[in-house]
Amino acid sequence: MSPRQENGIVSCSLHENGTSDPLPLAYSEKAVQEMLQLPLEGIDNNLVEFSEAMRTVAKALRRAAEGKTSAQAEAAEWKRKFELEKSRNLQLERKAISSVNSCCDLPNKRTSDLADQPEVCLPANGKNGHCCGANGICNHEVLRDGEVRSDSEPVNKKVVKKASFKLSWNSEGSKGNQYKHDVVSFDRGNISTTERSSKQIFLKWDSNPQTVLVLTKPNSDSVKLLCSELVRWLKDQKKLNIYVEPRVRSELLDESSSFNFVQTWKEDEEVLLLHTKVDLVVTLGGDGTVLWAASLFKGPVPPVVPLSMGSLGFMTAFHSEQYKESLDSVLQGPVSITLRHRLQCYVIRETAKHEFDTEEPILVLNEVTIDRGISSYLTNLECYCDNTFVTCVQGDGLILSTTSGSTAYSLAAGGSMVHPQVPGILFTPICPHSLSFRPLILPEHVTVRVQVPFNSRSSAWASFDGKDRKQLNPGDALICSMAPWPVPTACQVDSTSDFLRSIHEGLHWNLRKIQNSDGPSSST
Ligand SMILES: NC(=O)c1ccc[n+]([C@@H]2O[C@H](COP(=O)([O-])OP(=O)(O)OC[C@H]3O[C@@H](n4cnc5c(N)ncnc54)[C@H](O)[C@@H]3O)[C@@H](O)[C@H]2O)c1
Ligand SMILES: Nc1ncnc2c1ncn2[C@@H]1O[C@H](COP(=O)(O)OP(=O)(O)OP(=O)(O)O)[C@@H](O)[C@H]1O
């Protein structure tokens, strides 16, 4: 082999048989060293230069990606603010109209009598702009978004309008006329909190509920049996209109044609208008049926009465055998409710032309999970909270959970159990490959962004309340923030008793035999 230098690169010539020329004897090791020194340095210099150039390019790319990520997060935040502002403006508009129409001057006048007028309320006390006083809120003020009269009103039925109700909560301050709307008050330089969001909320009907949607777990004979009994009772004894899913209507009609009073829908679009027709939702099943019920409502959700017919039943406080007593008391009111917050998730594709080009939002009651799917590689998920980098999740994935979902998948992944009335977003890693990655709980006002970086080895997968898996390719992102529409579930006792009962009975939380008193005493 004869080493040659061409353009600063050393090359050796090989014979076709793969052997090389023996080095001339004059080439001592030192000589070789000297000969090779210069060209090798040339290679090194080139490599160093090249790697520096690559580093600069990588840095520029990373900066561009970070810039894009932060711009996307900012855009999503603005979008969220825009939506909140829009709904706030809508409320103000309604209040303004209400002062003209004075609908609340007519106590208990049913809104159906006002079918052609905007359905709004006049402040009853002339104060605060709320018809229900300072520590309450009327459903007319919050639940009217997107309510449009459907052209396809249910077959053979008269137009029925929703029952009105008000929500109220205990406020110590209001007793002494010291009620303040501010979260924090400054009284002579002293800071005190006057308002917290986790008070027990009561629902009181202003007019009687007229329409009930009954949702049932499929493929269960006991559920089917109870469903027909319950539907009959609601119709005959309570004189209520009943809606069920198309599948359930067919099942009921198969049983008897006398169930033809039961209403349903044909098109999926009609489901979007359900909240305008339904006063109350009753679920027959387990937690999965409550999740299913919530998923049908992409906007406001009517109060839900979950009758337990599953094995665990964290969110199903009512025993199904006692459905008559339970429903009697809920229909009569007032009833304690838990406002279960939901998360609103958007997927932004890398190919999106601009930041508002997101897919339809998905609302979750438990959690959104971003995991590695069938890939055997670690996930590589860059997470941002508002515009601040949080961490990179390397492991099996990440759970962004509501506090209601804190007892579900998040719990299994090591997250804390949180009272469902506490607003917040749980940030729980799944099998992180790091010893120090403890779960976080973030405040309710933040927007979390999970980005699959371009250099990720594989795609990630998002699933929503354990359903609807969506592939997230490198460059795609998922944005998640608190949704404006919670799921109000009726309580058996109250929010806190129901939560504690479910962790005791459902999970046997901290169950341990009490220690005997006959051990060593402290004096010995
Ligand atoms: N490793 C896990 O624990 C794990 C894995 C996958 C999904 N899940 C949970 O299952 C949920 C979907 O429920 P499903 O009924 O449609 O599926 P499913 O039929 O597979 O039931 C999952 C279990 O989770 C329970 N569960 C659901 N929501 C709960 C909650 N808020 N608190 C306590 N327990 C709850 C259900 O009662 C059921 O026992 C997902 O949202 C997820 O939280 C848990
Ligand atoms: N009306 C419905 N239509 C379609 N799927 C439904 C409906 N109701 C429930 N499901 C689904 O059926 C599955 C089982 O429901 P659910 O969790 O209520 O019953 P369960 O598994 O017997 O209860 P538990 O989880 O307490 O043991 C869930 O995945 C849920 O999403």
UniProtKB/TrEMBL annotation:
Belongs to the NAD kinase family. The keyword NAD applies. GO terms for molecular function: ATP binding; NAD+ kinase activity. SUPFAM superfamilies: NAD kinase/diacylglycerol kinase-like (SSF111331). It comes from the Eukaryota. GO terms for biological process: NAD+ metabolic process; NADP+ biosynthetic process. This is NAD(H) kinase 1. It comes from Spinacia oleracea. Keywords: Kinase, NAD, NADP, Transferase.
